[in-house]
Amino acid sequence: MKHFTMQEFTRSDKAQELGYANEPTPEHRANIEEFVRNLLDPLREGWAIRCAHEHYGTPAIYVSSGYRCVALNSAIAGSSQTSAHCVGYAADIVPMNGHLREFKNFCREWLVGRKFDQLISESENNANIPKWIHIGYKNREGKQRKQMLSAKGKNYMPITR
């Protein structure tokens, strides 16, 4: 894991508040490492090139939610019972430079032809700018559906520009 740490993936204010350890199993740790090695680290490196070219500033990416134990996932409003977060194959991420629209568009372009499960532009406003990006490597069955979606409220639709 070049650009991310296991601590980033397991850190959770909600888990601390509720007294959950949020400690991944060895299998889930391996999933996190596979996800980061095959998708997130290369995405971060591509984003660094785009940031340098467009003068966006730091290419750092913040993991706002990574691994979630089942109890934690259940405690988070709106979380799916089949969430890939629970097996270490999904993360909610935000570019530290604040360029959310550009990051969303970069992710869409960058993922074409790559193996992934979901890209969800989450909690989009009326200008189609997300609060964060959900990215999944595999779903809980190990499938890679290559879904690109926008979420406005509880409505999911094909990703917007």
Order of helices and strands: HHHEHEHEEEE
Helix segment tally:
5
How would you describe the shape?
globular
What is the mean pLDDT?
Answer: 95
How are the strands ordered across the major sheet?
Answer: 1-2-4-3-5-6
Class inferred from helices and paired strands: alpha+beta
Q: In angstroms, what is the radius of gyration?
A: 15 Å
Features:
single chain, 161 residues, alpha+beta, six-stranded mixed sheet, 6 strands, 36% helix, 19% strand, globular
Structure description:
By secondary structure, the protein is α+β, with helices and mostly antiparallel strands. The chain has helices at 6-10, 13-18, 26-54, 70-75, 100-111; strands spanning 61-65, 90-95, 118-122, 132-136, 147-152, 155-158. Strands 1-2-4-3-5-6 form a 6-stranded mixed beta sheet.
Topology:
Elements: H1 6-10, H2 13-18, H3 26-54, E1 61-65, H4 70-75, E2 90-95, H5 100-111, E3 118-122, E4 132-136, E5 147-152, E6 155-158
Parallel strand pairs: 3-5
Antiparallel strand pairs: 1-2, 2-4, 3-4, 5-6
Helix pairs in contact: 3-5
Brief digest:
36% of the residues lie in helices and 19% in strands. The protein has 161 residues and is of the alpha+beta class.
